[in-house]
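Format notes (please read before filing issues)

Several people have asked whether sequences and structure tokens are stored in separate files. They are not. Every record keeps both together, in the order shown below: the sequence lines, then the token lines. Line labels are part of the format and must not be stripped during preprocessing.
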Amino acid sequence: MPATAVEQEHRVTPRELFFDLVFVFAFTQVTTLLTHDPTFSGIGRGVLVLGALWWPWTGYAWLTNTVDPEEGFIGAALLVALIAMFLAALAVPRAFGDDGVLFGAAFLVVVAMHLALYALAGRGNRELLVAVLRLAPWTLLGATLILIAGFGFADGARTWLWIAALGCTYIGAGMSGSTGWRVFPSHLAERYGLVLIIALGEAFVAIGIGVSKIGLGEVAAAILGLLVATSFWLAYFDFFSIRGERMLTNVRGPDRVALARDLYAYAHLPMIVGIVLFAFAMKIVVGHVGEELDWVPAFALCAGSALYLLTYSAIRTRVERRLSLSRGRFTAAIALLLVLPLATQVPAIAALALVTGVWLALHAYELVWWREARTESRSMLASS
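Then the structure lines:
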């Protein structure tokens, strides 16, 4: 059963993109979960599910960064993982209810297969094999706790089991160290950029299926929603996607692995959460443009964007190893949070217009403030 570690950069393959399709459905299912339970508790459960879904995606992204996904055995194994992940996605809306066991069992299969493939890839590289063995107990324990949570526990106990599971998974991954792993910067940066686009696709879907009738208000809300979705995209691809790859290229060994783990495996999760919260809010807004928003969709609308923008300050702090705020984005995030109380007192379309206004003001600021840095980044990209 070959699973050969690659020795050089490679582009994202069609097989990897095909594997990612299941996550389009998974993100849609999380939005469905939020729609069925539009409470703050529902948002908390949705974030837990996203945290669970994110880990296998990021794990397989690192796997296909290390091995050739076009190898016959790897391709067949990815298909099995895709099927198991699809079953888990089917169970997402009731993962904290009747379908908890199905979600947990399918999730455990996905995680176990990922570790087995990584171990096979490490047969000819002792450092990689040791790294996989360090990670395996934490990841398997987390997946097992999610499966146990599906067996009829009370809501409170089930939620705590999920929290413990994700704590084991994410904290354990950090504690297991960064030695032994391999990271090819261009492939990894491209992979994470593509999944961000997948998540933004869910925002487009939410806008489309949220419209029950098409009037002037709905058309205006759709346009405003698309402007905000474009703003999410621009905030990432206008600058970070280039700089992130460059930062990984400039370091080597365990330092590169640790930076990739923190900037991509960890820091991209709150970005995805912010996008999914916005998608959920848009589903409500476009269906009730003239009504006032309840606190939960208003929170999702404003805090989703704020969380997305605050992540960039967290990234800067990690890179510079000191508290460092992205001035424009941090200010915009605070402005979005200040808009939240007002968003519950005005029609939904007005609340969306306020959020859109903050985003547009941020981009106007960055077009001026970042013009030299943007030019430098693009010239570095063109010369590479």
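For reference, the curators noted about this record: The mean pLDDT is 90. The first helix runs from residue 14 to 36.
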